[in-house]
Design brief:
15 strands; globular; about 375 residues; alpha+beta
Length: about 375
């Protein structure tokens, strides 16, 4: 019982329960008058679902549908969800009014082929391979040039006037190597072929051919003359007239003029001769009285040829003994037959002076076939 006394006008309160039972009742037994606390809805989750459904429906129907304003919550993802859904819907392809397949105006960049750089594992080996290829190319080119020079053609330059009026100093000619077969002198190089003293596929020249041969006294110097005497012939000059096998060669004067050379102005005559066999050639002569206008008789042995220049008074040929001139030319010394004049320049043109090429060119002699 409480010791406190109630104030005037207050009713006394009687405590009929003890403290323990009261505590139990207040904690374990709910009050009948108290309403249960309502469950708090998941606002953020529901908003995401509703917004996504609304955006998808709008994209499928093609009609603008305004989604309900989302409830304001403290959750940041709930506010960003409708915006992301709307952006995704806008990015979807739009179906055309005709109901055909959707189209997309966006340009798709197709990646190009990847550039692959192959790196050699051995840089030194690559350099060696390139060097080997260059050497092989040079060797093949030299081999081809050698074969052409030995078997087919060889170019020569006329260094003197001994073959005028048919060949002039400065003419560039081509000689066929196969015309008389091949000998040790057919290489066209300082070295000789290992063919001995015989000719391979040898053929005899025809009287009147213009021939390149090695000078018999040194077997190195290239000479060019015309074949006049064949094996078994006798050759002689009597008073400026050619005799072959004791018979004078028929000749006709073609023209007469004057030439200015190292000896000064001299009268010159062009004569057409008809050799035995019918071949006709044109020669140049300065008249009687020359050193070689009268000679002894030359007998041509087997395997040799008698050569003379077309400029009869200005040619060192078989009329001069071998020790000082040409003498008789052995068969193996024949190099080839002169076929054609390819180009021609007057004396004075220099390889190192291009201007002189045009100033001294003789185009009228280009590509002239030789008789």
């Amino acid at each position: 019982m409480s010791d406190n006394k109630p104030e005037d006008g207050e009713k006394p309160v009687i405590d009929t329960t003890d403290s323990e039972s009261s505590a139990v009742a207040s904690h374990d037994v709910p009050s009948d008058d108290a309403d249960p606390a309502p469950a708090e809805p998941d606002v953020a989750g529901a908003g995401d679902v509703d917004a996504a459904e609304a955006a998808f429906a709008a994209s499928e129907s093609g009609l603008p549908v305004e989604a309900d304003s989302p409830e304001v919550t403290d959750s940041a993802p709930a506010e960003a969800a409708p915006i992301a859904a709307a952006a995704a819907a806008a990015a979807r392809p739009i179906w055309s009014d005709a109901g055909d397949a959707p189209f997309d105006d966006r340009k798709v960049k197709i990646p190009g082929p990847a550039k692959v750089r192959v790196k050699d594992d051995d840089e030194g080996g690559s350099a060696v391979s390139e060097t080997v290829e260059i050497v092989k190319t040079v060797v093949v080119a030299l081999a081809i040039a050698f074969v052409l020079r030995v078997l087919l053609f060889q170019p020569f330059t006329i260094p003197s006037a001994s073959m005028e009026p048919n060949l002039y100093e400065g003419d560039y000619i081509v000689v066929s190597k196969w015309a008389y077969g091949y000998s040790k002198f057919s290489s066209g190089l300082p070295i000789n072929l290992p063919l001995g003293d015989d000719r391979v596929f040898g053929r005899a020249p025809t009287r009147g051919d213009i021939v390149v041969f090695k000078l018999p006294r040194d077997d190195k110097t290239d000479y060019i003359k015309r074949v006049i005497g064949l094996p078994g012939d006798t050759i002689q000059m009597i008073q400026n007239k050619l005799y072959i096998n004791g018979q004078p060669v028929q000749d006709v004067v073609v023209s007469a003029g004057e030439v200015n050379d190292i000896f000064g102005p001299r009268p010159v005559t062009e004569v057409r001769e008809t050799l035995p066999g019918g071949k006709t050639i044109t020669i140049q002569d300065f008249g009687p009285g020359g050193d070689l206008d009268d000679t002894p008789v030359y007998s041509v042995p087997a395997g040799h040829y008698f050569m003379m220049g077309d400029n009869r008074d200005n040619s060192i040929d078989s009329r001069v003994e071998q020790s000082a001139g040409v003498g008789l030319v052995p068969d193996e010394n024949l190099v080839g037959k002169a076929e054609i004049i390819m180009f021609s320049w007057e004396p004075g043109a220099s390889l190192f002076n291009p201007v002189s090429w045009f100033a001294n060119v003789r185009p009228s002699r280009f590509f002239r076939v030789l008789d």
